[in-house]
Design brief:
Blueprint: E1 4-8, H1 19-28, E2 33-36, H2 47-57, E3 63-67, H3 69-81, E4 87-91, H4 109-121, H5 123-135, H6 141-151, H7 157-169, H8 173-178, E5 183-188, H9 198-205, E6 210-214, H10 221-224, H11 226-239
Parallel strand pairs: 1-2, 1-3, 3-4, 4-5, 5-6
Helix pairs in contact: 1-11, 2-3, 4-5, 4-7, 5-6
């Protein structure tokens, strides 16, 4: 199964933002089986519930990857699976999405709290704002945000809030340190949700993993720059001997 890559999407916007990247990867390497697995729809924000469902439904011994929240979950699942995970790649994923005293390269807690309150009050307005934030820093932010909004699935507010609470609680530092397989972490230079300096913070924590920064790209860089990301991922897979 080392010729299989499973990608997990981010919060709230469904699988569509990853489709162009998956298509670009298949074009570069027809032998690579790329699939996008939707995130679980759960009322619980307990990471054990999310990881249990993902572990039961995702192929064993595959490469695990994901965008933002999906990347954080992929990291936790990679550590859980150990040698039964071929490798890990994350896209615009911070190790802590909300800043901690010992991890300041993240979103301010008060900013996140206001965002969560907005979602509890009016989920549809919050998702529109979220799409705008994802596209901020792109060459065409309005067009990119429209793409994100148009393809977003209808999700119950309870599931959206559970996902936000999970996002706030996750701390994947122990997971990426525990996982001994190959790792690639890609960040966007103009990301409005994950500070670009999170890349340097991750490198300081794990100097032996591959880290890349895509300049002048937004948080939604998987949709904005799919061919550039696909080339970086394919080079990484080739170097790891799994192309």
């Amino acid at each position: 199964m080392r010729d299989r890559l499973v990608l997990l999407p981010g919060w709230g916007l469904g699988t569509a933002p990853l489709e162009p990247l998956a298509a670009a990867l298949r074009g570069l390497n027809p032998r690579l089986h790329v699939e996008i697995q939707p995130l679980p729809l759960l009322d619980s924000s307990d990471s054990a519930d999310w990881l249990g469902e993902l572990d039961a439904n995702l192929a064993q011994d595959a490469w695990l990857g994901g965008w933002s929240l999906g990347g954080m979950l992929a990291a936790e699942l990679a550590a859980r699976r150990g040698e039964h995970c071929a490798g890990l790649l994350t896209l615009g994923s911070n190790l802590c999405f909300v800043a901690e005293a010992d991890w300041p390269s993240a979103m301010a807690p008060e900013t996140f709290s206001a965002f969560r309150q907005g979602c509890a009050t009016d989920a549809s307005v919050t998702l529109k704002r979220f799409a705008l934030l994802c596209a901020q820093g792109a060459s065409d932010p309005r067009g990119l945000s429209r793409q994100l909004q148009a393809a977003a699935p209808a999700v119950a507010p309870a599931h959206l809030l559970a996902g936000l609470d999970l996002l706030a609680a996750l701390d994947t530092r122990a997971a990426v340190q525990a996982f001994v397989g190959p790792q690639l972490h890609l960040f966007a230079g103009q990301d409005a949700l994950v500070p670009a300096d999170a890349a340097q913070a991750l490198l300081a924590l794990l100097p032996d993993v591959e880290i890349g920064l895509v300049d002048n790209a937004s948080h939604a860089f998987a949709l904005e720059r799919p061919h550039e990301l696909a080339a970086a991922i394919q080079a990484f897979l080739h170097e790891a001997g799994d192309d």
